[in-house]
Amino acid sequence: MNKQAPLGQGLADWLAWQETLHVSAIDLGLERVAKVAERLQLLKPEFPVITVAGTNGKGSTVALLTSILQAAGYRVGSYTSPHILRYNERITLDKLPVEDDLLVQTFTAIEAAREQVSLTYFEFGTLAALWIFAQTKVDVAVLEVGLGGRLDATNVWDADVAIITAIGIDHVEWLGHNRELIGREKAGIARAGKPLVCGDPNPPSSIRQVAQEKGAQLLQLGEDFVVEQATAGDFSIHLQAQDRGLTASWTQLPFPSLQGQVQLNNVACAVVALQCLTQRLPLVNSVALQQGISKASLTGRLQKLQSQPDVWIDVAHNPHAAENLANWLENTPIAGKTYVIFSILADKDIAGVIQPLQDKVDEWHIFPLDSPRAAPISTLESAFISAKLDNFQVYSDIHHAWKTVTVQTASIDRVVIFGSFLVVSQALDGIF
Questions:
Q1: pLDDT reading at 301 higher than 60
Q2: Domain presence at residue 131
Q3: pTM value > 0.70
């Protein structure tokens, strides 16, 4: 391994070096990152921290929080992963990705403090986010958990409010094979005496158990707060947790630009979390709230790229996300056919992703990703054959799949390009 830091070099050199630094790409635990954070005096940030965990909906909820807070006049630092096109997307200040020079300066500071502590690529980036947020004096930081929660590097900081979005089955080798085990890992971001907002409408019981064990104040969708759709164009959120001194209603809220009914639950999580922070972040008038919700955006989450035919991209790469995509397709009928361009990583539940969409797709066009972690085309084919599907075609790459689909589609059809984050990045980088 190359242990010599690329001092004086550019961002690409630093990122390549970080990938070689630690013995494994994923190594869950807080000891290493906490040690370096302490040396950098980052363990007690002066600004409030909102941490967001969950299987699906984390990125959307971070985008909504960021947009609402910015509309209310706050300087917001946001940390997400993975990126789609540029590493800089992971760390934003008021929605704008940080510049290369700032990242290089930050990595240099972390390297000086690291000494002999080995850090993963993700841990380096997480430290960089908090260093940048501290140096630029943000008013609030919004952190998306990378993997799980309890042992994720973001959990080295105490969340003033923790959010758990929808729980599904993913990353089973790290988090467990059922929702109860996964929920327990996610709920590890909760803190004693602090709110834990859960937006899963059918949460595993382990979330409540962990909240009780930690002394966190659980606020549960469907119990402590509810979403009511008033018309086709607006909805309301009602918070009734009088025993915790929280009662509020928000009416005539606009639908977010983020697509899918599930986004209303994500909005509710964001709004309730911000209500819990009103003493530190006196917020949010109705104009700022409405502007923030309506202007929130996120690359690759049911994002429309083209019309006639409509072309959508989505990073649905686990069964729960595929169910949400299937529901959206069913609730958004079209006159023509639905074509799908699809690929995924080898460690995902491919059969579980295909299954909810079987009767929603007219033609599948599948290809292997250019990645060591990609599912081989033979594995993809086997999954479709096992599902007794014969409406699929095989290609060497996304470009050949796209070329064929564009010849076949009419203006009344739609194309959905989905699967791994790498599918979306290849679509944006090589097609659009």
A1: yes
A2: yes
A3: yes
